[in-house]
Specification:
The protein contains five helices and four strands; from the N terminus they run ααααββββα. The relative contact order is 0.18. The protein has a four-stranded antiparallel β-sheet, with helices on one face. With 146 residues, it is an alpha+beta fold. α3 runs antiparallel to α4.
Length: 146
C-alpha cells in the first residue's frame, strides 16, 4: 500500500491487517453482529477463517479459533443455534492492559452472560479469553481442537 493510503487508514484507526478494534465495546458489539438476522454473511456466527481470527483474537487464540471444526455448540452463544435478543454490553473492570466486558442476552429465551477478557495492544483491542459460568473459550477450544 502507498504511504498516503496507510496514513489515511491510520487516521481512521484501521491498520493494514485490519486487526483489533478501537474500543472494548466495539469489539464485543462486532462479535454479536455475526449472530443477527439478515444477510447470510452476518447470520452464521463468527467466521472461523484466519482473517477473522486475526481481527478479533489475540495471537495465542487465532490458530485454535480457525482450526476448530467439530464443536458441539458455538461457545459465543452457548448453543448450536441461536435467536438472540438484545445484547447488553458493559465494562465490569479495567486492569492495566486488560478490560473485562460482560455481554448479556437471551438466546431462544434462555439468559446467557459471558465475560470477555480483552487486551489492548498495538493492534487495538482483541479477545484474550471469554468466560462462561462453567467454562472458558480457551478450555473449550483446547478440548475440541482438531
Amino acid at each position: 500500500m502507498s504511504g498516503a493510503v496507510l496514513a489515511f487508514l491510520a487516521g481512521l484507526g484501521i491498520s493494514a491487517a485490519a486487526a483489533g478494534f478501537r474500543s472494548p465495546e466495539s469489539l464485543v458489539r462486532n462479535v454479536y453482529g455475526y449472530y443477527g438476522k439478515g444477510s447470510s454473511d452476518f447470520s452464521q456466527g463468527l467466521p472461523r477463517d484466519a482473517a477473522t481470527a486475526a481481527q478479533f483474537f489475540d495471537p495465542s487464540l487465532r490458530k485454535a479459533w480457525s482450526s476448530l471444526r467439530n464443536e458441539p455448540y458455538d461457545f459465543l452463544v452457548q448453543s448450536p443455534n441461536w435467536k438472540l435478543g438484545a445484547v447488553s454490553i458493559s465494562i465490569i473492570r479495567r486492569q492495566f492492559d486488560k478490560t473485562y466486558v460482560a455481554a448479556a442476552f437471551d438466546n431462544h429465551g434462555r439468559a446467557v452472560t459471558l465475560n470477555f477478557i480483552l487486551v489492548n495492544g498495538r493492534e487495538g483491542w482483541l479477545i484474550s479469553d471469554v468466560e462462561s459460568p462453567h467454562d472458558s473459550l480457551r478450555m473449550f477450544l483446547d478440548q475440541y481442537r482438531n
